[in-house]
Amino acid sequence: MNKGSILIIDDEPLMRVSMVDALTAVGYEVREASNGLEGLERLQGMFYDLVITDLRMPGADGLKIVKTCKDHSPQTEVIVITAHGSVDTAVEAMKGGAYDFITKPFSMDELLLSVDRVCAMVDLRKENRILRDELEHKFSFQGIVGKNNRMREVLEKIKLVASTDATVLIMGESGTGKELLANAIHMNSPRRQHSLVKVSCAALPETLLEAELFGHEKGAFTGALRQRRGRFELANQGTLFLDEIGDVSPVVQVKLLRVLQERQFERVGGNETIEVDVRLVCATQKDLRKEVEKGQFREDLFYRLNVVPVHVPPLRERREDILFIADHFLETMAVRNHLEIKQLSRQAREVLFRYSFPGNVRELENTVERAVALTQQSSEIHVWDLCGQSRCPYNGGEPQPGCGFCSDLKGSKGTGRASMETLALAREQFEKNHIFEILQRTGWSRTTASKILGLSRKGLWEKCKRYGITRPGEAGVAREEDE
Ligand SMILES: Nc1ncnc2c1ncn2[C@@H]1O[C@H](COP(=O)(O)OP(=O)(O)OP(=O)(O)O)[C@@H](O)[C@H]1O
Ligand SMILES: [Mg+2]
User: Fold this and answer.
1) Does ligand 1 lie within 6 Å of residue 361's CB atom?
2) Using 50, 70 and 90 to split pLDDT, how confident is the model at 175?
């Protein structure tokens, strides 16, 4: 069985041959290169899951190998072999994207352990990718991506009611996807051949909104030079999307109530009663029930609008969607621009996952779009690209005031240097990130994660406790027996 493809680059023949033999014996497909330049050549010709490279070599050194791999084949992981004492270079290699390092002298068992771990992770990633393609298909509807249970329920509800004429009230914070849901309702309704007309009720003052919605007769008010049909008429046989319905004035509320009850209205300044066949979808960031309690919104209108209520959860309450949607944006942006799909670095994924996203999916979309634009040369997106800066504490720069992505980095005070100065700290940081990622990839199954990590469940629990790793949404470190 082929467990994975590996390229070994080392100029010490004895060391190289020992590694090739040990890894071939346990089922890896291994190629070798006897110096850095030959290694670079081999990298051009074939895809490797893993590259094991010595750091100090004539020609191209290990750092160059790491950089080439990360630039040209970010899916390939790199383990660097460091001589005892070359701490600085090892740290540099890790910062450059090496996955792990082994210090000489090491036993073949030690090497195998490290290689098995990396390849298990690579395997998991491949599986995840295939799964994700399948999931993407399964967990999307009209470009709305989400695998969170509450989001699935929202989408199921939307699918169900789309074909009816029921009025839908979509409630959620800014940027959660309310308009996208309104589009989906219309596009899946029998009305899709007709117009979907949108009005932002918050954008217009009362009198203008009234005229906008219901139209006006010639001379109805100063400046009404000719008769104009309103949005209700324009949406006849189609769907009318009233955004920010919570901001509508009492006068317009009365008129809306009448249209909903009788399907009739008059243009501003007119007597002719106009009948329309319109399906209404409304959205609001406000809690309409509270507005009713405060006397700001008519109760009778609220009940007319709230026939099918849809609550869209904020992104911070559906964290499993953050990276899923981010990957979706990366793919769609790449396809749109005919470019290679960029990947988020491990740290960037962690940072995104932890961020609270007050601007919800819109903020995530803008962040990803900006990061893609900033990483034209590289196929990997780093934390500093998310920050929109060339430097942030994650690459030794200063924290950017107000930047939610880099400001929570421990040790980012003072000089702003990330806590990667010593090898011990670098190892810890790496270990913490790696454990977090594996837990995330295994859906927080401590049993599976501990197997992949080569730890006992108790060992994993202790590490989680030490690094303060908790499952997002869980208050404390899970108990050892928790699954
Ligand atoms: N689940 C999702 N999958 C993919 N894209 C999404 C999703 N949710 C939102 N988006 C995208 O995020 C952006 C914001 O969504 P949208 O405009 O629908 O939000 P909204 O709730 O109407 O915001 P606002 O209240 O500020 O008007 C859009 O570009 C939309 O395509
Ligand atoms: Mg909107």
Assistant:
1) yes
2) very high
Angle between helix 423-441 and helix 457-467 axes, rounded to 10 deg:
120
Q: Per this entry, what is the length of the chain?
A: 483
Residues with Cβ–ion distance below 5 A, ligand 2: 179
Q: Is the CB of 285 under 6 A from ligand 1?
A: yes
Give me 426's structure tokens: 């670098």
Query: Structure pTM?
Result: 0.62
Instruction: Tell me whether residue 145 is in a domain.
Output: no
CB count within 10 Å of CB 363 equals 17
Whether 308 and 168 share a structural domain: yes
Taking 70 as the threshold, does the pLDDT of residue 478 lie above it?
A: no
| Number of domains making up the chain | 3
Domain of residue 402 covers 320-467
Q: Are residues 364 and 301 in the same domain?
A: no
CA separation for the pair 201, 252 (Å, rounded): 10
Is 178 near ligand 1, meaning CB less than 6 Å away? yes
CA angle 250, 256, 259 (to 5 degrees): 150
Cα(171) to ligand 2 centroid in Å equals 10
pLDDT more than 70, % of the chain: 90
- pLDDT score, position 305: 97
Q: For position 362, which CATH number holds?
A: 1.10.8.60
Span from the CA of 128 to the centroid of ligand 1 (angstroms): 25
358: Cβ below 6 Å to ligand 1? no
Q: How far is the CA of 257 from the centre of ligand 1 (A)?
A: 28
User: What integer is the mean pLDDT of 321-326?
Assistant: 93
